[in-house]
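# step 3/5: fold
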Amino acid sequence: MNYHVKKSRKTRYTYRFVGLAIVFVCVTQIVAFLMGYGHTHKIGTFFAFAFTMYGIYLFMNSFRSGAYDIDYEFKENEFIVHTKYGKKTYSYDQITDLNQIIPENELFYSIIQITVETKQFILPFSYKKEVADKIYAFLNERITTSTLIKDGKSDES
């Protein structure tokens, strides 16, 4: 069972543009302060430095693997997450939390949230409630089975 989460290219470019614009404006404020202009505006320069860090954060965050398209491949004993920077394989017993979020009007969308150790994967389903239910049932069954097998092995020991 496969599922593809499409991410918008425009969003990545917007984060990059806004981040660079913030950095440019704030660095000019900092440079003007260091050159001797506006020594009475120390607090403004401090805020400019903080906003520069935020602009750098926005720019760098646009390159994270979650900002690009993600393919999820659910197999019998494991699931594979394909990102731009490679693939990562997880077994079902590594999943620490599984949630399905269904809003009041469940016709429009639903969300599956998978937590693996410290990573969190969000699978949005717009107008695909049946697909979300199918994947959630599949994952819930695999997690329950792997938990029962793990508990059975620990009881034998």
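# step 4/5: annotate
The beta strands are 2-5, 70-74, 78-83, 86-91, 95-101, 109-116, 119-126.
# step 5/5: archive (pending)
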